[in-house]
Amino acid sequence: MVKASATSSDSSKNTGALSAPETAQVLFEYVRSILYDPAHAELSIDCIDPDFKELASGLEYLCQCADEQRRFGDHLAKGEYSVAPPSIENGLAAPLKQVQGALNHLAWQAQEVSKGDYRQHVDFMGDLGDAFNTMTAQLEERQAALIRERNSLRSANKELSAMNDLMVELALASKRSLLFIDDDTDQVVYQTDSFKQMALRLPLTTKDILENLRALPDDTRSQVVTWTKDISVRDPHDEDHAVMRFRIISRGMIYMDRPVTAHMIDDQTDQMLSKEKMADLAFHDPLTGLYNRRYGMDRASSLVDGKTAFVLGFIDLDNLKYCNDNFGHEEGDRYITSVAARLETVAKDSLVCRIGGDEFMVIWPDHDVNELTELLSAERSKVLEDELPQGYRYRHSFSYGCIAVPAQPDQPLSEYLAKADYAMYQFKYAHKKSLFIG
After folding, report:
1. Are 59 and 30 in contact (CB under 8 A)?
2. Spatial separation of the C-alpha atoms in residues 199 and 206, rounded to whole Å
3. What is the CA radius of gyration of the chain?
4. Cβ(60)–Cβ(31) under 8 Å?
5. Which residues contact 143 (CB under 8 A, 6 or more apart)?
């Protein structure tokens, strides 16, 4: 063994190649680069000790396989499931090929379900397959329930259609205020008790309603006019709402031998407030109060359609799962809400949305990508200084990725979203080790 080592050393001196210990160190660093920085992994075989050249060639092939696997995995992470996989010789990519095949098949099955084929069943992919099967069964059950409800409604509609039109109008009128205004004198000549009660409760607002009714054009006498009016509440003691909405049906008629305009007034304020509340719930995240993913995507699409440039930022909390698993979801919620409150004020005139459990999106029209990057970097530094519960192993932090979306984008919005997401994960990977405490 000693003799062979001496021969190798003498040979390396004669050829200019590295010695065996030097070669071992070079190969070790090369393997490290393959694992942590494959894009910059380089090896000069000419300088390798001759006894190690075969091993070096094998490591170069390993690097090629690892790079192919990484690029293949990046495509899959972006949802590009139809990308060509590495060759069959690349054994490292075999598991990812299986994932690709499973995802392609699952996407096809999902398309079939969207067409109404609820017979699709997934017996692979573990929990994801179980969730798919549960969803399909629920969709089938809901469709059946909708069909039953539709048939029931059809039957009920047949019965309703047999009712007298007059009975319908009387039933509606009992919920409305009825008011007759003389066409010549503009005086109220008839009013129901419901309108009298509103006049007592909201005298100033009722005065505004009467002014709007008297301002109707004269041609309403010969036709039925249905209109909607929002009236600001001017009565200081009414604190329920700032605006009242009325749906009014107006028509000219003869009452007590006098030409009048009859107004059937339906107070729709409660319905308006209910719709506004539902809209607010539909576009806001209940935990943080921020806008949700739906609103954010709609806003981004509107900016693209309006040819307005904006900066798009993707943000992901670091180590939220560790926080939830070790300190409970209540502590995790405090982590989420504290960062959300900071993000909401990080850039003036920006829109901040919570798009997932630990994911946020920032949309900042007419600003430079470097501005948002600097602001997020500064805010992240503040978050890193958070006081943490006893026993915490990781600092509070978030990772981010920012890109500019031009006023005349040359790619679909989904591509810019994917780029921002990818930049965020690159940032997370580069800073992950620095968050460990200890």
Report:
1. yes
2. 5
3. 35
4. no
5. 116, 118
> In terms of residues, how long is the chain?
438
Alpha-carbon distance 390 to 108, whole Å? Answer: 49
Q: Quick one: tokens of 412?
A: 């679909």
Tokens encoding 110: 């999902």
Q: Say how far apart CA 208 and CA 215 lie, in whole Å.
A: 11
Residues 6+ apart with CB under 8 A from 352: 290, 291, 340, 343, 344, 346, 360, 361, 362
d(CA 264, CA 433): 70
The Cα 318–Cα 436 span in angstroms is 11
How far apart, in whole angstroms, are the C-alpha atoms of residue 100 and residue 93?
10
Q: 3-class SS at 230?
A: strand
Pinpoint the alpha helices (H) of 162-236.
165-173, 193-201, 203-214
Query: Do the Cβ atoms of 312 and 405 come closer than 8 Å?
Result: yes
- Contact (CB, 8 A) for 315 and 362: yes
Under 8 Å between Cβ of 246 and 265: yes
- Cα separation, 288 vs 341, whole angstroms: 8
Contact 399, 316 (CB under 8 A): yes
Angle between helices 193-201 and 203-214 (to 10 degrees): 120
Q: Which pLDDT tens digits describe the chain residue by residue (438 residues)? A: 222 333 344 444 445 667 778 877 877 877 777 777 776 777 777 777 777 777 877 777 777 777 777 777 788 778 777 778 887 777 776 777 777 777 777 777 778 878 878 777 777 667 777 777 888 888 778 878 888 888 877 765 554 444 333 333 443 455 678 889 898 898 999 888 888 888 888 888 888 888 888 887 776 666 777 777 777 776 666 656 677 778 888 888 888 888 888 888 887 777 766 666 666 667 889 899 899 999 999 999 999 999 999 999 999 999 999 999 999 999 999 999 999 999 999 988 899 999 988 999 999 999 999 999 999 999 999 999 988 888 888 889 999 999 999 999 999 999 999 999 999 999 999 998 888 886
Q: How many CB atoms lie within 10 A of CB 173?
A: 14
- Per DSSP, 97 falls in state H
Question: Which residue type sits at 137?
Answer: A
Which of 99, 101, 43, 34 is closest to 68 using CA atoms?
34
- To 10 degrees, what angle do helices 20-36 and 53-77 make? 10
Cα 126 to Cα 133: distance, rounded to the nearest angstrom: 11
